[in-house]
Amino acid sequence: MNRTTTRTMRLFPLLAAVSLAAAGCSGSKATGPTGPKTGTTQTTGKEPAPPPISNTAKARFEDALKAFDTQKKAKAFDYPSLERKFKLALESDANLAEADYNLGVIAERQGKLDEARAHYKTALSKKPSLRQASENLAVMEQNAGNVAGAVALYQDVLQRYPDDAQSRARLAEIYRQTGDHDKAMEFARGALMRDPNSTTALKVMIRTYLDRKQLAMAKLVALRGVKLDGADPELHHAVGLILMKEGDKDEARLSFKKALEVRDDYVPSHVELAQLALESEDFPEAEEHLRRILQADGKNAAAHLNLGIAYKGQGQFDKAMQEYDEAEKLNPELAAVNLNRAVILHKVKDAPERAVELYKKYIAQAGGDVALSAESPVFNLLREAEAIVNAKREAKAAEEQAKQMEELQKKQQSQMQAAEKQQPSAPQPAGAVAPASASGAAPQATPAAGSATPAPAPAAPAGGAPEKKNAAPADPTEPEDDLL
User: Fold this and answer.
1) Which of 1, 11, 35, 381 is paired with 372 by a 20 to 30 Å CA distance?
2) How many domains does the structure of the chain reveal?
3) Environment class of residue 316 by beta-carbon count within 10 Å: exposed (0-12), middle (13-18) or buried (19+)?
4) DSSP code at position 397
5) What string of DSSP letters covers 4-61?
6) Are residues 12 and 123 in the same domain?
7) Residues of the domain holding 237
8) Beta-carbon neighbour count of residue 220 at 10 Å?
9) What is the spatial distance between Cα 369 and Cα 359, in angstroms, rounded to a whole number?
10) What DSSP designation does 464 have?
11) 296: Cβ–Cβ under 8 A, 6 or more apart, which residues?
């Protein structure tokens, strides 16, 4: 159940021609569940009679209430216009305490808490019997964490109105929140004894039974509350929460939707339905509920995170990253932002290096005082991203090596070509034939300049006969033998 204490945000209409009193105009823009209408409690009789209200002020006040009722039926409130109407009535007669009270209600619905407190206090100064103003002040103090201040205000109401059931029910809720369930049940039952229709007291009992894990009793009381006031979204929501704990998600979903039929801006049911839609991967429906949550509270970091998940599920990755950025701005300690952002960088954006950093950051944040389970999916994602990083690194190294080899080959080829150009050969006429020697053999190549010329080898004797040593030289006048 939502920890924020809520109540009926009523506007006070005219019941008689002379006096003003509380009646059942209800509705609230508060982000938490609202309480039921309260019964009329008799005053102690010590309060002096209120001064008469001018007819002009009463007419303008009635006009403002009619505008409120019309807007309530249309489920579209124009708070600035309502504010102008009630201020006009107050200008007609400054004694109109109910106009101050209603201006406080309108201010609170718009989140103007300081202004609302001022209006409630002014209303009480003019008419102390407007105990609803005291209750609203007490609830505001309770929601702000000032429990002692809230208790003092409730006790002040009970001192003046001992039979006031609503203040007893509010005190019961404070005891429940502080863990004193026995005292909570005591005050809740006391409230029901004074007002059997006090659904505020029934809600305290429902929460107490849930805290004690007594689901059957909680469900019994919740169903009783729905019968008493089927227009209270918190009671339908309570039934949904009980069904969730019982494991019946389908029936729980119907109860949450029923709460939204009663009041379409009831945030707790939007939260539950968004979560159920995300779990079933119905991302468009999740987006719809999350947008309604952010309309009520644009600074809800968890809602921005979940909206990013809904966008990611629909393939709108850039929008998802924008929502993650917004969630991180609102809550830098929200670890899931890093995990979801890393998944997109890893799986979609081809940026595994950055993904590895974010996975590690998530593990450090999410671990906190208790280490993550070794079976957590993030560790497999981290190993996969690291493997991709290593593969990319090796591929890059191989590419660089191949590139270096190619450049080296090109350099060697260039050097060889340059060397060939530096050693030109002697040109010869086209078609020229080297002259033969007298013996018909091709001439020997001319040795290069500066090199030693080898002596010609002696010719072997004809017929292979051995050479005669010390033979006399041939007679030049003797004819040669022409036989071979």
Assistant:
1) 1
2) 2
3) middle
4) H
5) S-----PBP-B-SSS-B----B-----SS----PPPP----S-SPPPPP--HHHHHHH
6) yes
7) 218-280
8) 15
9) 18
10) G
11) 29, 31, 265, 267
pLDDT at residue number 122: 95
Backbone phi and psi for residue 14, each to the nearest 5 degrees, phi listed first? -85, 130
207 lies in some domain: no
Does the CA dihedral 382-384-386-392 come out positive or negative? negative
Residues 241, 121 share a domain: no
User: Rounded to the nearest 10 degrees, how much is the dihedral formed by the CA atoms of 200, 207, 175, 29?
Assistant: -50
pLDDT tens for residues 68-111?
A: 999 988 878 899 999 999 999 999 999 999 999 999 999 999 88
Partners of residue 20 on adjacent β-strands: 14
Helices (H) and strands (E) in the chain, counts: 19, 0
Please say which residue of 280, 303, 334 terminates a domain. 280
The string of pLDDT tens digits covering residues 175-212 is 999 999 999 999 999 999 999 999 999 999 999 999 99
What number of other Cβ atoms are within 10 A of residue 25's Cβ? 18
Residue 204 lies in a domain: no
Residue with tokens 């595994």: 352
Asked, for residue 269, whether it belongs to a domain, the answer is: yes
The neighbour count for residue 351, using CB atoms within 10 Å, is: 15
**Angle subtended at Cα 430 by Cα 428 and Cα 431, rounded to the nearest 5 degrees:** 115
Q: Is residue 363 part of a domain?
A: no
Q: Which has more pLDDT, 30 or 370?
A: 370
CA separation, residue 463 to residues 266, 472, 479 (Å) = 131, 20, 20
367 within 8 A of 374, measured Cβ to Cβ: no
Q: Is the pLDDT of residue 222 over 90?
A: yes
For residue 430, the 8-state DSSP code is T
Three-state SS for 169? helix
Both tokens of 309, joined, read 């998940």
C-alpha distances in angstroms, 339 versus 281, 314, 360, 464? 18, 18, 9, 102
- The length of the chain, given as a count of residues: 484
Name every residue whose Cβ is closer than 8 Å to that of residue 44 and which is 6 or more positions away in sequence. Answer: 160, 161
Percent composition of the chain: helix, strand, coil (DSSP 3-state, to 5): 60, 0, 35
Domain end position, chosen among 280, 301, 330: 280
Residues 2 and 109 in one domain: yes
**Alpha-carbon distance 234 to 7, whole Å?**
10
Contacts of 272 (CB under 8 A, 6+ apart): 237, 240, 241, 244, 252, 256
Q: CA 102 → CA 91, 108, 170, distances in Å?
A: 14, 10, 21
Backbone angles phi, psi at 420, to 5 degrees: -65, -35
Radius of gyration for the alpha carbons in the chain, expressed in angstroms and rounded:
49
Q: Could you tell me the CATH number of the domain that includes residue 62?
A: 1.25.40.10
